[in-house]
What we know:
single chain
Amino acid sequence: MFDRVILHLGATxxxxxxxxxxxxxxxxxxxxxxxxxxxxxxxxxxxxxxxGNGQVFKFxxxxxxxxxxxxxxxxxxxxxxxxxxxGHTLLFSAEGLQRISxxxxxxxxxxxxxxGPLEIVYFVRHVVDHALSQYAEYIRRRRLRDEFSEFAKxxxxxxxxxxxxxxxxxxxxxxxxxxxxxxxDAIANFFKLIGAEPPAEKTIVHRSLSSEELALMRWLxxxxxxxxxxxxxxxxxxxxxxxxxxxxxxTSDDLRNxxxxxxxxxxxxxxxxxxxxxxxxxxDKIIDDTPSEDIDLHEQGALLLTAVHExxxxxxRQPR
Length: 320
């Protein structure tokens, strides 16, 4: 038995990949400190990102067998993974469990509690900040072509539904909700939360694309259909110096639209769920009504050609 069994539900755009990468590389040190984090993650891409160890649970979403079959399989997997490990904390971090069925949440709860008291850890992010980050992700990975002003008109954060479902099953006292702040060291904060020393080396997953780079990606999304080629192009851009250092910002109009869609959600999250910190509509300095400046693509030609070359080389190696 462990003193704590922590299940980190990795919400999108809340530092999850950076946290999981740090946990994976520090699993040996964590074990010495009494925290067992089974290092099951796979390296993603060529930038040493590591996904979480929650793939042990992935079969739950795909399994066609009945609940008893899933229970037997999960119990055997956990026994195989945890084995005779000794420590005070057992830790899993997973991104794919936020939308599983109520029956499967109950299954996870029952099986994980065989190892100790279960604690759910979840991070939320200020609404405008999350919308901007999610928007950039959709441009990079889903061929989104809209401007942010259009995206903001209908965007709502996903946190409330997830927390309501999990707290109803696991109990409100078992669900700990924290506000993610990208200006702080998310990895150090997470390690402190689980009672462990943070790693000395910094984990760098990838840099965010600038507003001009995102505009370029939207332009390409109109013209290139293959998502893998587009994703490779975005990855190539992120490995090179920025086209500019100007970050994507929301306008006052965007803030009004996002507030109309999310104000009640934020109020309820703060009232019923947030354990530490305060969720806001927007962080400081994220609203900027200054018109964007045109970028001189001629001066950035070498950078663009390099990124395009890498993407095309990648596309040429893919089976047709």
